[in-house]
Structures are given as structure tokens and as C-alpha cells.
Amino acid sequence: MEPRAEWEIDPRGVLDILVVAPLALGYSARRIGAPTTMIIEIQFTDRPISLPPCVAEPGTGAVLEFQGVVRDRENGGKISALVYELYAPMAEKVMRQILQDLAVLHPCLYAGVIHRYGVVPAGEMAIYVRVESAHRGAGLRVMEEFMNRLKSDVPIWKTGSLPS
Description:
Radius of gyration: 21 Å
Order of helices and strands: EEEEEEEHEEEHE
Number of strands: 11
CATH superfamily of the largest domain: Molybdopterin biosynthesis MoaE subunit
Shape: elongated
Structural class: alpha+beta
Number of helices: 2
Strand order of the largest sheet: 4-8-10-5
CATH class of the largest domain: Alpha Beta
């Protein structure tokens, strides 16, 4: 019998590898568990966001993209732009932690975030998020939960709006 390895990712995001190798009088089986890792890229810019090219990580079966666009209305009134402020080092740290926490629950291969700051005109993207996963379910859950936690936990603030 030739040595073989079988693997799976359990619901906690642990890569479980079963290694079976022949011994002199039989076979040996052992399990190696290691947390999966998701590539995380976070950027902040004061310029319009251009969509990055879609070059998927190996093993990707689902690519999810979210574009958060500034509406032309805020609090019932017409506006021409929103003003965002952030504390970049802390915002990046908190975003990274949120994505790492979510990767344990919903294993994904890649997460990328680009967030604008400064004046963002109505109709332009304030945020772009991309998640790559082996299957759509994990990617959809990461996307939704990340956006919910971004709004409540990350130090990025809408500090004003410009009237239309």
C-alpha cells in the first residue's frame, strides 16, 4: 500500500488531514489538525475605487463582490457627497481581526477590502469587499457578517454630508 493523505475542513475551520502510511507489520494512521488561513488584504484610499482584476486563489469555487455606493439621500435630505473619517491603523487591525474570526467559522480563501475616506460623491463606491471561498455558502456568510460588524465595530465614521 502506498502512503496516502485524506483531508477535510471541519465546521470550525480546522484543516483535518488523515495520513495513512505502511509500517513493517501493518499500517499507521494519524491526524494532523491545523487552522486554515485566509489571505486578507485591506486598503484605504482617498481616491475613487477601481475594481481589481478577478484572479482567483487556487481552490476557489465562489467569488463574491460587494460595492457599497453613496446614495444621493441621507436622513431624508438630498446630498451630493458623504465625508468619511477613519483611524487607519486601528481600522485595519479591527477589520483584520473580524475577518480572522469569521474565517474560523466559515473557511474562505481570500478577503479583500478597499474603503474610501474623505469626501465621497454620491454614486461612487465608499467600500469594495471581495471574498473567495471553495463554496458559496461560506463566502456569503463571511460577506454578510463582515459588513454587519464593520458598521458596528470599525473606527470609520460618516462625519458629514454635503448638501446637493
